[in-house]
Amino acid sequence: MLILRALEARTRERVRAEVYDYYAGAAGDERTMAENAEAWQRVWLRPRALVDVGAVDPAVTLLGHRLAAPVLLAPIAAQRMLHPDGELASARAAAAAGSLYCLSTRATADLAEVALAADEVGAPARWFQLYVHDDRDRTTEVLRRVREHGYSQVVVTVDVPVPGRRERELGHGPVALPDGVEMASHLGRGEGVAAKPMIGGWDATLAWADLAWIREASGLDVIVKGVLTAEDALLAIDHGASAVVVSNHGGRQLDGTLPTAVALREVAAAVAGRIPVLVDGGVRSGSDVVRALALGATAVLVGRPYAWGLAAGGPEGHGGEAGVREVLDALIDDTARALALVGATRCADVGAEHVRLRGWD
Ligand SMILES: Cc1cc2nc3c(=O)[nH]c(=O)nc-3n(C[C@H](O)[C@H](O)[C@H](O)COP(=O)(O)O)c2cc1C
Question: 138 alpha carbon to ligand 1 midpoint, in Å?
């Protein structure tokens, strides 16, 4: 959508070059980031005419929570680099829009503060994204607090055994956090925001069997984020995942992977409705949301679009909660509109018959 491109352009004018590059950039030649967006455009929509769409409702139920639309906010690190209210603004905006916010482990606000902010606005639920620290005791303590503060799912990111090589970041050197901003206490103070070095930091030994430990330590269900193959989707089910997120981290990890639209089709076929399948990467319009539903997703997450809203959106262009809300409202409105135009009144009415794939193998 044009509005998202405009917000990105405004963010670029407003923030330091290394901050813009941190959010906008991806790994390697950034092919996967580009192909994520392109792949959705290789899914043509097949609208049906003269369907009564007098009452369209894009609401969905996801893991027991009623959401206004199948559009969630993906975990994005260090949001106080974009706006002083950072994660608090995003969590509030999601709650107010009837959407769901997933807080990153690499947040610049503590999980307890974010929980409070979201609940004040009546959040349907809140999720916590987990990176496992190589000091597992630290992660056990984080998970204890995640549960204590009422998060309903732990979203384990599985595509960062080591950080991707993000050349824009390497070019600038480590991105400095603004004065007075630090990585949240659940990480340990003094951590920088730049990609971690190869040695130290996140636990590269993490394996499927560890999902049981994460579930036990948190007492919560576990969603696996970063699945791109049918094989891994089946392993996630075998290891008790409550949902999977088809994701390549917005192209920030392994450059050259399958675009997520393509991976989604394979994963959804393998999962066959046993657990919800979510997807992210390059989703930029209501038409993209409908394409994802047609390829088997229950819902999508968006990343960069709401980062631009947080930095530069809203009626006054000051970003913050109003800025994130502007992005969410636009995506939700566009989803309802795309549903009507394709001839569906509910997300569940969208199926494979609503799309035709252009130039897929
Ligand atoms: C600047 C930035 C920071 C991110 N931080 C995290 C993170 O801390 N944890 C995580 O699981 N994913 C993280 N992601 C990946 C997003 O959750 C999501 O998978 C991706 O942004 C979706 O693609 P999109 O930006 O094209 O919508 C980050 C992405 C960006 C752009």
Answer: 23
Ligand 1 pocket by Cβ (under 6 Å): 22-23, 36, 74-77, 104, 106, 129, 157, 225, 247, 249-250, 252, 280-283, 302-304
- Within 10 angstroms of residue 13's Cβ, the number of other Cβ atoms is 8
Phi, then psi, of 81 in degrees rounded to 5: -75, -20
How does pLDDT run across 210-234, given as a tens digit for each residue?
A: 999 999 999 999 999 999 999 999 9
Query: For residue 302, which atom of ligand 1 is closest to its CA?
Result: 27
pLDDT at position 129 is 97
* Sequence-ordered list of residues with C-beta below 8 angstroms from that of 194, at least 6 positions apart, any chain: 22, 169, 173, 174, 175
Note the CATH architecture for domain 2-357: Alpha-Beta Barrel (3.20)
Where residue 201 falls among pLDDT bands split at 50, 70, 90? low
Measured in whole angstroms, the distance separating CA 161 from the mean position of its chain's CA atoms is 18
Q: How far apart are the CA of 301 and the centre of ligand 1, in A?
A: 10
- Entry pTM: 0.96
Q: Hey, is 222 helix, strand or coil?
A: strand
Residue 140 above 90 pLDDT?
yes
3-state secondary structure 262-305: HHHHHHHHHHCCCCCEEEECCCCCHHHHHHHHHCCCCEEEECHH
CA of 31 to the centre of ligand 1 (A): 16
Mutation test of ligand 1: which of 76, 111, 254 has the most ligand atoms closer than 8 Å to its C-beta? Answer: 76
% helix, strand, coil for the chain, step of 5 = 45, 15, 45
Domain definitions of the chain by residue range: 2-357
Q: What does the pLDDT average to over 180-189? A: 67
Q: Label residue 198 by pLDDT band (50, 70, 90).
A: very low
Query: Which one-letter DSSP state was computed for residue 55?
Result: S
Q: Which residues, 6+ apart, have CB-to-CB distance to 9 below 8 Å?
A: none
